[in-house]
Amino acid sequence: MKFSVPLFIIIPRKRKADRKVILNLNNYSHLHYMTYNQVKELFCEARKGDLTGLKLKYPITLTYTLYKGSNRQSDRMNVLAVIDKFFCDSLTHYGCLPDDTDEYISSQQFNSGGLDRTNPRVEIEIAEK
Question: Which CATH number fits domain 2-128: 3.30.390.30, 3.90.226.10, 3.30.450.40, 3.30.1330.70?
Answer without folding.
Answer: 3.30.1330.70
